[in-house]
Amino acid sequence: MPKTIVQEFTKGLWQELPPFRLVLGLCPVLGVTTSMENGLGMGIATTFVLVGSNLLISMLRSVIPQKVRIACFIIIIAAFVTIVELLMQAYTYPLYLKLGVFIPLIVVNCIVLGRAEAFAYKNKISSSMADGLGIGIGFTMSLGALGAVRELLGHGSVTVWGDFSYNLLSAFPSFQPFSFMVQAPGAFICLGLMLCLINAIGD
Amino acid sequence: MGYFELIISCIFVNNILLAQFLGNCPFLGTSKKMETAVGMGMAVIFVLVMAGTITWLVYTFILVKFGLVYLRTIAFIVIIASLVQFVEMFLKKSIPALYAGLGIFLPLITTNCAVMGVCVLNIDKEFTFLQALVASLFYAVGFGLALVLFAGLRERILLARVPRPLQDTSIALITAGMISLAFFAFQGMV
Question: What's the whole-number average pLDDT of chain B?
Fold first, then answer.
């Protein structure tokens, strides 16, 4: 039975939630989640690329020859990544500097290429867009959640976006932030524990 | 920075996998067996040295010269993809033994962020040609080292009794965190 557009959208939010259900595209997940703001910014940039590339690949799916499809996908994705890079340089320059090398690396993010190959190349435009948006929002939520946990434990406070922030120290004055969480080893361990939690909750 | 410091920094301090988080998909995907880990490590060393130098040359002598710097992302990914394809065809024809050894890992390298990442880092850090060459080689060596170390641990974990929710990727990530912690100790060296 073909799925409805709503189902294509909502599957990205839990059933196929990246990066926990689809263990793909881990590099930005580990690299940029030192704070919640970075995580959300990266998630939004990836969502834009996902929706754009899914839309274009789905539109061109009868034109792209089977044999060179991967090369075509990569060039389409790279074009959208360049758009994001230029947009971020123009409007959110500080965030662009913080995310650094991870913005051009959206090109080689397995999630984007994986959705192009597994979904957009075989499906209608509307469901491809729903799929891209769902997976993208799921990815953004995961990155935001991981960033929030790491920032909260590592710095004792979390900046959601702009000036809006929450300070754990005001609620628990005796809490000692442990900077381990915002450094490299903390990223791996925190992601591993969150994956364990998601597995334990299950379907 | 001298070359010795650069080498130490690329292998240990700024290890591409454990400190910069690039190339994690193949890291988790190919580290279940020692054999595949060695194959992937070799393939990455081979391709990264070529990709790092060629992208540096293209960036410096074509993109910068003609004011096309904004095309960097597209240019680099096209270079890497075609390079991987070319290396694959060349090895198949001339060194079949090595080709059989690297096997499936060669095509996978196109989407390995470590390769693309090092090419971008070489440019961002404004390395000279020789520095870019050395950095590419030793970043790749660091990648191989981390991968082989990790594969050794992971083969052991297969025999251990791990609680169900922690199985597979979850325990692998936590193990990677422990190795990362060990590499973290090199932080003050350079």
Answer: 88
For residue B171, give the chain A residue with the closest CA: A192
CB contact under 8 A, A27 and B21: yes
Judge: A110–B177 Cβ closer than 8 Å, yes or no.
no
**Under-50 pLDDT residues of chain B:** none
Cα separations in angstroms, B140 against A187, A191, B37, B44 = 22, 25, 13, 6
List, in sequence order, every residue forming a beta bridge with A158; answer none if it has no partner. Answer: A166
Decide if B5 is inside a domain: no
Q: Do A31 and B21 touch (CB under 8 A)?
A: yes
Position A1 pLDDT exceeds 60: no
Q: Is residue A27 part of a domain?
A: yes
| Residue A21 pLDDT level (bands cut at 50, 70, 90) | confident
Q: What is the pLDDT of residues B112-158, one digit of tens each?
A: 888 999 999 999 999 999 999 999 999 999 999 999 999 999 889 88
Residue A19 included in any domain: yes
Say what angle helices B113-124 and B34-58 make with each other, to 10 degrees: 40
Show the domain range for A22.
Answer: 5-198
Domain residues for the domain of B67 are 37-183
- The Cα of A172 is separated from the nearest Cα of chain B by a number of Å equal to 28
Number of domains comprising chain A = 1
CB within 8 Å: B120 and A104: yes
Provide, as residue numbers in chain A, all residues whose Cβ is less than 8 Å from the Cβ of B174.
Answer: 188-189, 192-193
Q: Do A71 and B184 touch (CB under 8 A)?
A: no
Percentage, residues of chain A above pLDDT 90: 31
CA distance A130 to chain B (A): 25
- Is B75 part of any domain? yes
Q: Name the minimum distance, in Å, from the CA of B185 to any CA of chain A.
A: 11
User: Pick from A9, A43, A41, A30: which is nearest to B169 by CA?
Assistant: A30
For residue A203, pLDDT beyond 70: no
In a domain, B147, yes or no: yes
Per the structure block, which two tokens stand in for B115?
């390769």
Nearest CA in chain A to B123: A101
Domain presence at residue B29: no
Asked if the Cβ–Cβ distance from B174 to A78 is below 8 Å, we say no
**Does residue A19 have a cis bond before it (omega within 30 degrees)?**
yes
Sign of CA dihedral B5, B7, B13, B16: positive
Residue A203 lies in a domain: no
* ipTM for the predicted complex: 0.85
- A2 falls in which pLDDT band (50, 70, 90)? low
